[in-house]
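URGENT: need a sanity check before tomorrow's submission.

F., can you look over the Dual specificity protein phosphatase record below? I want to be sure the sequence and structure line up before it goes out.
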Amino acid sequence: MGKPTGSPQLPDNELILFFSVLRFMSQHNASAAVAVATPAVGSVPTSATPSCEYGGSSVEGRRSSGSSLPPSSTESRASKGVSSLRNNRFAVPECIAGPLEAFRMAATNLPVDAAAVAATRERLLEALLASYGPHAAALSELFARAAAGALRQQEAVSLSGSGMQSMQEVLPGLYCGSYHPAAQREQLDGARITHILCCIGTAPRFPGDYMYLTIPADDRPEYNIRQHFDRTFDFIESATLRGGTGVLVHCGAGISRAPIIVAAYLVRKLRMPPGQAVAFVQRRRPFASPNAGFVRQLREYAESLGVVPQGGVCLCDATAAHDSRHAASVALQARHTDEGGSLLK
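Structure tokens as predicted:
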């Protein structure tokens, strides 16, 4: 009987590349800023699919000292509310959609076949170069870094109370953290944050300057956190796939509610097994440790999307169990060593 081949863990580097490609296309597709009806999960909208030719227009910029976006435009955007951006999608050109999906599947199907990942990555680059010729140098550099494993965002995170109060970039433009960075304008602008998803019942700290979505969730196993997954997916999507913008998902301590919301986004966007999604967040934010009820609801959500079998045992989730136990220990330690003692649970 032959030994199974391939890695039991999803390749972080390739998942970062996948999101980098999406953000690149959202900036450079001519149709990037056109609102398209939200497609069925896993599908690509076809009614507004552009041709496979380069489109040079870019999407709206971010409010910052280095942006060409005037303050009046920022205020207008913020005043529109969440609904104006919920269905903001860009259509992936058909000639790229196939190679992109093949690459995603190779990178997210366990065990991961490194040869298949490399082959599909190469085909994706060829498709992108054919459609975005003027950006050949930038694309080639991005894919060369991916092939060398240089895209990993494994920053050193202080495992103390001060570290827990910070925010970490889970994927390009997608941050997860505690309440503290959400109250620090300089930190938000430094990370090019334009959207803030607050998972606790507090009023926006900077209304008018950032796009907010607030879900007053309770950190209790019996709380129905799943009811928010679709709405938060739309909000995160509207921020992360607009190029030079970003979103901070935060709760009080950044341990349970915010991480499960980010994990739910990964499950739906990448069709990532729920245990692997949580583990992926934990590798960026070691304090992430969603409560057992939230993890169960994430599993049920993944089942409803067809990501994992109904009621079955997913081996890929079992491989992520160690990360979860370690994160729970780190989170508990950080809680006890926090000097401020003012964390919102």
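My own read: Confidence is low (pLDDT under 50) at residues 30-51, 53-87, 318-345. Strands lie at 167-171, 174-177, 193-198, 211-214, 246-250. If you see anything odd, call me.
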